[in-house]
Design goal:
The chain is α+β, with helices and mostly antiparallel strands. The protein has helices at about 1-15, 100-105, 120-125; strands at about 30-35, 40, 45, 60-65, 80, 90-100, 130-140, 145. It has an 8-stranded mixed β-sheet with strand order 3-7-6-4-5-1-2-8.
Length: about 150
Amino acid sequence: MRNSIFLTVCGLLLLTTQHVSADPGQPTFMPALYGDGEVWGTKGTTTLPAPNANNLQSFDNLYVITNANDPNAVQLPVSEAAPGNPNYNGGRWSLQTVTWTAAGFMAYGGYAPVLKSEDEIKYNEEMGYLEIASGSTYFQCPLLPVK
């Protein structure tokens, strides 16, 4: 079950890049997710066991927005941190599911904006425009520069 969730998440990351021929274990240097406002590629490696009290801080949140609706933009998943950020943990992720609320759509004129950083996610959550549900999926996908 855990492997199928991992493959689904990595497949989602790869599918959102317009580079659909890569296997989840193959590196992709195409845009796969946003981190600190920049696009990054990735490489799916492995599922991880749930963190415990000793290693919880070694995971970053990876936000997957489920209902972005702008037909002219692609909403990639958003990472809590990226390489160069001292808080980046090397690509160890705790999957978070993000949903725009009706108030969020109304605030932005019917189309949700593309979010590119955790700061933007947290701001919109505080405004009541997003709901975030923590999941129980943990995996490793290091971030790679886009070429």
